[in-house]
Backbone:
């Protein structure tokens, strides 16, 4: 079974705090993704990574950064959290091949007060 | 640019009915199409992956079809149950990323 875990299911932070969301996989998949999901806006890609130390911006990278020091771990960093970053954050993985299937973690519900 | 739409946005049916969810995409040059289920407050669970060379894929009471030429996929759910209540999303690869539909929210009433 594919396993993608996220560090927290629920998180409450204050405006201005630095926030770390972590995603860990046990499937040796090359690609890792961070999305946020908001009502009426669907899933939006923040960043993705196709290899260690490699990262690519998605559709909404502003206010976020990422880190991938090991293949199995992909971190999303909110340098200075703001209330408009309150959202559901979803991590996903896939293989590099073109017939790739995507697998998701359980999600982190982040509330910024 | 690839765009994915899903119709209907929401659907409510009585238990036991067979139903069809629709997914449309604008660029037919896809490698595969994936259907997901999402329960409230949870992540996405992969249901079915149809490769571009396939026309259908089945898992239990679920059957997904793919017609690349018309840019459409359907998810057929047989003998629906209250436990099938969830949001169903489809997605297609786009480069190294994926494009998701907005989802269909399904309610199966006991």
Residues:
């Amino acid at each position: 079974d594919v396993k993608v875990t996220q560090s927290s299911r629920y998180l409450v932070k204050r405006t201005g705090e630095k926030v770390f969301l972590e995603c860990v996989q046990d499937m040796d998949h090359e690609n890792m993704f961070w999305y946020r999901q908001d009502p009426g806006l669907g899933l939006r890609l923040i960043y993705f990574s196709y290899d260690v130390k490699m990262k690519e911006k998605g559709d909404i990278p502003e206010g976020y950064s990422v880190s991938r020091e090991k293949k199995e771990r992909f971190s999303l960093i909110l340098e200075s959290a703001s209330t408009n970053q309150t959202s559901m954050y979803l991590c996903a993985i896939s293989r590099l091949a073109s017939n790739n299937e995507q697998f998701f973690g359980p999600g982190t519900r982040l509330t910024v007060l | 640019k690839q765009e994915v739409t899903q119709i209907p946005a929401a659907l409510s049916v009585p238990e036991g009915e067979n139903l069809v969810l629709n997914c449309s995409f604008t660029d037919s040059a896809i490698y595969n199409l994936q259907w997901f289920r999402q329960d409230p407050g949870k992540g996405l669970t992969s249901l079915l992956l149809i490769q571009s060379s396939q026309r259908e894929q089945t898992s239990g009471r679920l059957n997904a079809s793919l017609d690349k030429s018309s840019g459409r996929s359907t998810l057929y759910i047989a003998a629906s149950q209250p436990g099938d209540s969830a949001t169903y999303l489809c997605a297609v690869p786009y480069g190294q990323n994926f494009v998701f539909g907005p989802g269909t929210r399904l309610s199966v009433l006991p």
User: Anything to note?
Assistant: DSSP finds no helices and eleven strands in chain A.
